[in-house]
Amino acid sequence: MIQTTPQPTWAQQFSTPATEFPLTPLPVLSGKLPPGLRGSLYRNGPGRLERAGQRVGHWFDGDGAILAVHFTDEGAMGIYRYVKTVGYQEEEQKNRFIYGGYGMTPCGNLWERLTKPLKNAANTSVLALPDKLLALWEGEPPYRLDLNTLETWGLDDLSGLTKKTPYSAHPKIDPETGDIFNFGQVLAGRPQLMLYRSDRTGKIIQRNSIPLDGICLIHDFVLAGQYLIFVIPPLRLNLLPVLFQLKPFSECFQWQPQKTPTQILIIDRQTLTLVNRIETEPWFQWHFSNGYVEEDGTVVVDFARYPDFKTNQYLKEVATGKTKTLAISTLWRMVLQPQKSQLLQLEELLDRHCEFPTVSPKEVGKKAHYTYLSIHQPGVNSAVEMFNSIGRFNPQTQRLEEANLGENRYPMEPLFVENPDPSQPGWVLTVVYDGDQNSSEVWIFDAEHLEGEPVCRLGLPSVVPNGFHGTWKPH
Ligand SMILES: [Fe+2]
Q1: Ligand 1 mean position, distance from CA 109 (Å)
Q2: Domain 9-474 = CATH 2.130.10.10
């Protein structure tokens, strides 16, 4: 007997390109705006997965569109704008895809294929600096936007980047010093990992490079006390088919667990130099939750671990509106002895499919009280559904609190926002796509009552499709 699964409702949000909206007062649908919540929420993600009837090759190829929600004494105002990258503007003007991407080969004419092999999609995350917002994409320098109007101002070199020295989508801000650490993987010439330290304005004030043994997939890293930790999965890029435009990047990463161990690089954050390197068993991760140094000098790192690289196929299928590949990540912890180059412990913390782990910005690089996660409701078929809940996990007690979003609602990465009154609990913010209503809302939870109703729900004028990462900038 053939069992048929009803088509999940999440796919609708990706069926047509997202529509921009100007600065608009957002209606309160339930609850009320917390009086202490003052600042701006920014979220980035692919807004356009189709142009003139052609679909992108992978979810990662969609043009970045940014949602800003400004919380003021007068209420919440929302604005949604595509990042007006050079590639976006050109493809908009010609109304066809031209450039290649992570998951698609270039599709322009011969001249265009030679001169425009790769589009900076500016679609992965945002970094809110004092006087500008950066739209991040790991293959190139970021785009610079106006913090209020989201007007695109152009590429930003942060006083040190070139087209060949990318700036990844996962910078880490030290909550004490305001220093911003980030990296970029250089593909041209000898493969290397560029390391950057910026001041609080984003200006790069220190850099170094670490040689790599091939072109790897390094998406995120960890700030843990005085260390930066990189974990390089057993994936290497076969570059030639990419260079000859025969296959896109996403199809040329070879999972080779027999040949290549997982490499853990321990970097000193003061000098940006390699302290030690550890080799261990194979796994893949996109994201880390956080890291810190224990009193005995050991380093603890939490991350969302996949057994292999099938997650890439699942994420490719998301762009088609129908997924079938099972790719489960669960929350893991590793404990390192950095000076002796030892992996002391490797254990699963939470046996639930989860992703987008975040901690309070004040606890980045330190022992955090909680990890916030996108998670599946129990019993969900993870191969066909997207994340449909968020949770708060306490790694000390192993307790997980889960929100109940109901049926056919799909939240984005949860972000913790601290209450300016330290005696009061903070909030957890997410943007929820409602597959039944085909609409998007901003949901605000009391961080201490994730299991209860949200304290406020705000309506958005049009669908803001599920994306990747966001940030909060306090006023
Ligand atoms: Fe990411």
Answers
A1: 32
A2: yes
